[in-house]
Amino acid sequence: MLYLKDKAEFQKEVLEVKDKPVIVDFFSEWCGPCKMMEPVLEKLSTEHKELKIVKVNVDEAQDLASEYNVMSIPTLYVFKDGAVAKQMVGFQSEASLLAAVA
Questions:
Q1: Is the bond leading into 21 cis (omega within 30 degrees of zero)?
Q2: What percentage of residues in the chain have a pLDDT greater than 90?
Q3: Is 34 known to be catalytic?
Q4: DSSP 17
Q5: Homologous superfamily in CATH for domain 2-97
């Protein structure tokens, strides 16, 4: 999993990716439900190489959080061909994330 810090990294690692879906996890270190997402995302990144998973710390990348209207965390976005395909708020199961990228 990649941890993105700024818009330039986001552009390269999310918006310019055309060969696979990208799940973006907007999170914070102090967020309990965000910590619950960690093992789910780790498992997906290990078992599903056809997916790309990146994380954005909302405390460090407030401009990105604002641009994507992140009001609650965790907020997860699925990007396909550089565009938002789905937005989910709150803890998500492995099954719901796989369904979102299908």
A1: no
A2: 98
A3: yes
A4: -
A5: Glutaredoxin (3.40.30.10)
For residue range 9-22, list pLDDT tens digits in order. Answer: 999 999 999 999 99
- Give the separation between CA 98 and CA 4, rounded to whole angstroms: 22
Give the span between the Cα atoms of 45 and 68, in whole angstroms.
Answer: 23
Which of these is catalytic: 34, 64, 76, 78?
34
Say how far residue 82 (Cα) sits from the centre of its chain. 13
Which of 1, 2, 31, 98 is labelled catalytic?
Answer: 31
User: What is the per-residue pLDDT across 51-73, written as a single tens digit (0 to 9) for each?
Assistant: 999 999 999 999 999 999 999 99
Q: How many CB atoms lie within 10 A of CB 54?
A: 21
